[in-house]
Prior knowledge:
The protein is of the alpha/beta class. The chain contains nine helices and six strands. It is globular and about 45 Å long.
Amino acid sequence: MIQPEESLLLVIDVQGRLAASVAGSDSLIAAVSRMVRGCAVLEVPVMVTEQYPKGLGSTVEPIMELLPGALPLEKLSFSCCGDDDFMASLRSYGRNDILIAGMETHVCVYQTAIELLDFGYNVHILTDAVSSRTEGNRQLGIGCMERAGALLTSTEMALFELLREAGSERFKAVSAILKEQ
Length: 181
């Protein structure tokens, strides 16, 4: 079971032109946004990456506006783990459960998940918050990550798991976010 003090949300490459071209783009951005908002309530840190932003554009505004002051980590390697600055930043949080959202499922998300597993992290794929340009590649990426040891979850399932119980102000805040779906 994931816990807020052990978890980190990693949002991979939800950028301009690429975000517009993936399957279910609007629902992906909505799911990532819900997760970012829930993490803010639960005090779970969020890291954002961008694959070659000069060519693919910046992280989409609906997500960045939820992360005031955040500076996405730029990368050229498909796996986030191929970037030394990313790895240093990730390690600085001291979190072992990495919740992954982003794109593309079969490329950057997949390669990052596999390397994080190799490094000993617990990897949780938010299946409603990952996508590829085709649904087939999305499903292929999810299946390969699961077979490699990643755990599959959804934004709602993960947020309720992080909460653990009802009756608190955090529960009310997260419930309100989820009701907006």
